[in-house]
Model the fold of this input.
Amino acid sequence: MSETGKRQEAMGESKAGGASVPASQLVSSLAPPASPNERAWRRFRRNRLARFSAWFLAGVVLLVLVWPLVSPHNPDALSDNQFQPPTSKHWFGTDVHGRDVFTRVMFGAQISLLVGIVGAGVSLIIGVTWGATAGYVGGRTDSAMMRFVDILYSLPSIIFVIVLITTLEGVLKNWLAATGSPTLAKSARLIFLFVGLGAVSWLTMARIVRGQVLSLRSRQFVDASRVLGAGPVWILRHHIIPNVLGVVIVYLTLTVPAIILYESFLSYLGLGIQPPMASWGSLIAEGAEQINPIRIYWWLIIFPGGVLVLTLLALNFLGDGLRDAWDVRGGK
Done:
């Protein structure tokens, strides 16, 4: 072939069925196929609502981390400016003790987000371990483990957390105080929220992981590793769990808002975060206490509740976007 013919072929000038083939299509046809992660990322970028939610959550996290360092207001300092409406000095107004509500919302966000993230982490560890073990071993072990999950499903999860807090919190406080950990003793309620909410949120995670593992354990690459002498733990760590990681991340994103909502509900009932600590739920409860027939201090409920609702919506939209992105039936 002459040099001119080679250049024409490289530029896509060759004829195919009487029509010229554009150079971009020729190059794309020669490019290697995109990996599942790359296709998922493309689908996620096309979802504007999910991308906006991700940026919103990043802004909330950045503000929560930075504001306590630059805030001109002490969240626990009492003043004579009780029940001041929103102004340029107090963006969200002040509460019954004259404290800046915006600063308290930012400090409360630290607790609420921390409970959600740590609780989801506990759910991740228990759920993935339980579901992967049940799905890979199979047989009677699988049946026994999943029947245990069914039994826990029949119990009201929020009631279980309430009973756990009310019965064992005092025992944990006394034990931590006796072992010389007074700081941890003050955080006993927070520890129970971490463990309790995470311990009741892993059931669906275990079922999802089990279903994925059941479909993967008979694949050829798993059989090849088994023939080469790989043990069950090695196969789970290097082959099966990495292949279910996308589904796990999606459900983990949806677990965080559920745990935050649980914590807010418990704090609203007075069974969650206790003063002087604050969370979004406890701030809403404090605002609800100030409702009376004479005057309603609306900013004490609207702003903490609005931030909570917007954050939960963003987390759910992000989870939906990730779910659609990892859906293999989606577009390219």
Q: What stands out?
A: Residues 6-19 have pLDDT under 50 and may be disordered.
